[in-house]
Amino acid sequence: MAEALLRDRLGRRGVPARVHSAGLIEGGQPASAHGVDVLRGRSLDIADHRSRTLTPDFVEGADLLLGMARLHVREAVVLRPQVWPKAFTLKELVRRGHDIGARPIGQSVEEWLLKAHAGRTHTDLLGEHPDDDIFDPIGSSRAQYEKTAAEIEVLTDRLVALLFDRNPTP
Question: How would you classify residue 165: left for phi > 0, otherwise alpha for psi between -120 and 50, otherwise beta?
Answer without folding.
Answer: beta
